[in-house]
Amino acid sequence: MERRPTIVDVARSAGVSKSTVSLVLQNSPLVKQETRADVRRVMAEIGYVYNRAAANLRSANAGLIGLVINDLRNPFFTEFATSVQMALSARGYATVMGNTDEDAGLQAQVVGAMIEHGVSALILSSAYGEVAATFEQIARAGIPAVQVLRRVHPDTAQFPFASPDGPAGGRLATEHLLAQGARHIAFVGGLPGRSVTEARKAGYLDVLAREGIAPLVLEGRPVRAFGREMAARLAADHPQVDGVLCFNDLVALGLLSGCAEIGRRVGPELKLVGFDDIEECAQVYPSLTSVRSHIAGFGQAMAGTVLAWLEEGAKPAAETLSPVELIARASTL
Description:
The chain is an alpha/beta fold and 333 residues long. It is built from twelve helices and twelve strands. It has helices at residues 7-14, 18-25, 33-46, 52-60, 75-90, 104-116, 132-141, 166-179, 195-211, 224-237, 249-262, 295-312, and strands at 64-69, 94-99, 119-124, 145-148, 161-164, 185-188, 216-218, 243-246, 271-276, 289-292, 319-322, 325-327. The strands form two sheets. It has a six-stranded parallel beta sheet with strand order 2-1-3-4-5-11, with helices on both faces. The chain has a six-stranded mixed beta sheet with strand order 7-6-8-9-10-12, with helices on both faces. Helix 10 crosses helix 11. The radius of gyration is 24 Å and the shape is elongated.
């Protein structure tokens, strides 16, 4: 059976009414033990899984939505999570949120617990690593689930993926650095092989290839500490670099701090671009040019997408990339 078995399929196979199957699912004492056993046997044989969350949703027009975030310490993900939660609340849904701290094993536990507690759908910014257990549980539960910001499962037909447009952001940032006079541009930060790193790096590589300029990629942990270390390393090992596109704003803010430490002026001597445009970019000195992902609006859109799938059966496209824009500030001007 290609589609998921329904309560009607169970009733037909067991030779009972749909109402009887419903009573069995509710553990009603009105159903004879013999009939109950027959219905349970048929459920097992045809692979029927009772989605209690969906049943509750149909009866009460309300539900819980699971929101799983890989790193709530990062203000980018915090802003995303907040916008999703607020948008769901405005529609009468409660949000069950879990932070996995980039731990795939913990993520599987969190998702399993959410399913057990009856979430109606999941929005998942996944940890990397061994994520099969996470997605197997979601598939068995048969609930809508969207991958956001990071594509970790290849089956986007089953688990649709949505994110701000990383390649477009990389192109915008690199073109801006070239327009501001940079000729030796490095890409700094982001762990190799990860989909979001490769997406943002792809736009950078495309523009440099078009211009006939050799790239310099220095990947690493997407945190401030790495960016700060890279300020001294760039000055010592790659003094020709006059422009940097950072994987994210945290790396860029760390690099900004590291340049201040070694006395290198960001803007006049080294042009610096971040990615995501978190609030701090406009508050630091010099203010940081960044690729704006419109993350609050993206979060609101993802809430709407999941609810449309849940309430109306409007499954989203396998992949959705939302627009980004470059916000130019003093670090490049």
